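Lecture 7 notes: from sequence to structure.
We start with the chain below.
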Amino acid sequence: MRFRLLLALAALYPASMTAVAQTDTATFDVTATVDPTCTVDADNLVFGTYDPFSDTPLDENSEIRVQCTSDTPYDIGLDDGDNTGAEGERRMALADESDFLEYDLYHDNHGGTSWGDIDSGAELTGLSGTGSEQSYVVYGRIFAEQSVAVGNYVDTIEVTVKW
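Predicted C-alpha cells for the same chain:
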C-alpha cells in the first residue's frame, strides 16, 4: 500500500518542478611582466706598493659582479677615471694632484685588451644574463719605471652596465 501511495504522489508531482542544480563557469588570466634589469657591484683594485725603479709593471686584479634577468643581453664598460690625461690615459693622482701614476685596465689579461667605456668599442660586449650573479675579472697594470713622487695615489673608475 505504501508503494502505491508513493507512486500516486510521484504522479502528482510534475517533472518540471524537480529541482536540478544549475552551474555556470568563467575563466580569468593571471599575468605579470618581467622587465629586463641588471645590478652591478665592484671590488676596489689595490696595487699595493709600487717601485718606480723596477723595470717590471705592477699587475693586480679586481672583480666586477653583474646580475641580470635571464636572457637579458648586456655590455660592461669602464670609464677613464677622474684623472684622465691629455692623451686619454688613465692616471691615479696624489691628493693635491701634483703628480700622476699611469695605469690601465684590461678585460682579457694584464696588458691585453684595454677596457673602455660603453659605446667606445673597448667595452666587454655580447654578455647574457642568467638570473644569477656573474663575475668578471678586471686586470690592472701600473706601467714600469715611472718617475713619481712619494705618496698615496688614487683614482675612481665608474662601471656601467648597459642592457
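Points to note: The mean pLDDT is 92. Helices lie at 2-12.
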